[in-house]
Automatic annotation (TrEMBL):
It comes from the Bacteria. Carbamylation allows a single lysine to coordinate two divalent metal cations. The keyword Metal-binding applies. Residues 62-447 form the Amidohydrolase-related domain. This is Dihydropyrimidinase.
């Protein structure tokens, strides 16, 4: 089935009898899709069906706007290796789990212009995606030409940017970060920042290896909570100094959370993201051995998994409404052939883990009974759309919005496993997790792209140009 054949001239689709999770609340009714747009939301349902419509019985299901993962790294060279997932495999896996849009990090390397970076990411993604895709622009080479290009990025639909306080080949210093914030403030752009003190991390890594701590546990020990909290604090003051909007990505610690809270009390415009791994897993995972004694490497990601106290603090923040988005930082590497290259030195283990496929099921299961449909809407779709300039085109069940829709069956029970995932990686960090609920039907731009956790084989994903 071609996308064109279904998207253009396709019959009107009616999703009948579901619990529609709309911006104004949950209502039982019908959702009408015409082409690639939502035509109408009908509380109570249509009195009668027009001839020739295609109907889907979704009674007993929640009908959400498609979920949005605003933090992914697909088909990306990290300085050590290529990620296991391409845009093709990664977006296919995303849709199988109910995610219809990703926002990936196009990354400028040293000596590269922003336009060259953007063109390269389009080359990798265009024509290959099952889910829609947008880009943040990660800036690693700040100079006068880069400053001039920031406005060009806005014209290309890029309104969010990223910088790093860690990784020598990527990080900007404080003055450069301040100048970047000043450059994006006039159009109310937002800067996403990887908050770890890279200088401290480099020294602590050296000390770990020197002390003979070379296994995966050394990764967590070399990146303490204080390294995150210090960097978040520094970003908060830079944001306060410039008045620009910032987004703390993958917050993982109680100490980091406290810095965000303090800044918000001062009026700093800061958004907060965390990820499922920091809400479900702790640093005891680094001691896993597995069949080959190296299973702990699966959890080598940055920031690392933290203490149970940090997990509890972040879960409390989610329940209190302090977290604006839960995304994944999906950055997959195979355990065998990639991560195991660091068997004798954890600093050679590629940092990152998979998650784009399982985020909705994990979050809805772990917060079952404590959060409701409107909370899941905000954390998994609406929040991302509002923060990153896609709302209400994305993130809303409303007439005129894009027909990105996830029909979620809360009654399904299943177990996450590498054996049943679509992510192109040889493990999952959530192996054996029993989850409640599954994406029964997933529409991308009005096209049925996945059903009952499996892809239908179409690639209807489009580039999403955004506005500040």
């Amino acid at each position: 089935m071609s996308v064109k054949a279904e998207g253009e001239g396709a019959p009107t689709k009616v999703l009948r009898g579901g619990s529609l999770v709309t911006p104004d609340g949950v209502v039982r009714g019908d959702l009408v899709i015409e082409g690639d747009k939502i035509a109408s939301v009908v509380p109570g349902g249509l009195a009668e069906l027009p001839e020739g419509v295609q109907t889907f019985d979704v009674e007993g299901c929640w009908v959400f706007p498609g979920f949005i993962d605003a933090h992914t790294h697909m088909q990306c060279w990290t300085g050590m290796d290529w990620t296991a997932d391409s845009f093709e495999t990664g977006t296919r896996a995303a849709v199988c789990g109910g995610t219809t849009t990703i926002v990936d990090y196009a990354t400028q390397d040293k000596g590269m212009t922003l336009r060259e970076a953007l063109d390269e990411w389009h080359r990798r993604a265009d024509g290959t995606c099952t889910a829609n895709y947008a880009f943040h622009m990660a800036i690693a080479d700040w100079n006068e030409h880069t400053r001039e290009e920031v406005a060009d990025m806005r014209s290309a639909g890029i309104t969010s940017f990223k910088s790093y306080f860690a990784y020598d080949h990527l990080r900007l210093d404080d003055a450069q970060t301040m100048e970047l914030l000043e450059a994006i403030k006039p159009f109310d752009g937002i800067l996403c920042v990887h908050c770890e003190n890279g200088t401290l991390v480099n020294e602590l890594q050296r000390r770990m290896v020197q002390a003979g701590i070379t296994g995966p546990e050394g990764h967590a020990l070399s990146r303490p909570a204080e390294a995150e909290a210090e960097a978040i604090s520094r970003l908060m003051y830079l944001a306060e100094l410039t008045g620009a909007r910032v987004n703390v990505v993958h917050c993982s610690t109680r100490l980091g959370l406290e810095q965000v809270r303090a800044a918000r009390r001062r009026g700093v415009r800061v958004m907060l993201e965390t990820c499922p791994q920091y809400l479900l897993l702790d640093d005891s995972r680094y001691l896993e051995k597995g069949e080959d004694g190296f299973a702990g490497a699966k959890y080598v990601m940055s920031p690392p998994l933290r203490k149970p106290d940090d997990v509890a603090a972040l879960r409390e923040a989610v329940l209190a409404g302090e977290v604006d988005q839960i995304s994944t930082d999906h950055c997959s590497f195979n355990l065998h052939g990639q991560k195991d290259r660091g068997r004798d030195d954890f600093t050679h283990i590629p940092n990152g883990g998979p998650g784009v496929e399982h985020r909705p099921a994990l979050i809805m299961t772990t917060f079952e009974g404590r959060l409701g449909a409107m909370d899941f809407l905000r954390l998994l779709s609406e929040g991302q759309a509002k923060v990153f300039g896609m709302y209400p085109q994305k993130g809303a069940l409303a007439a005129g919005s894009d027909a990105d829709v996830c029909v979620w069956d809360p009654g399904q029970r299943w177990t996450i496993s590498q054996a049943n995932q679509h992510q192109a990686v040889d493990y999952t960090t959530y192996e054996g997790f029993d989850v409640h609920g599954r994406a029964r039907l997933v529409f991308v731009n009005g096209v049925l792209a996945a059903q009952d956790g499996d892809p239908t084989g179409v690639q209807p994903g489009r580039y999403v140009a955004r506005r500040a």
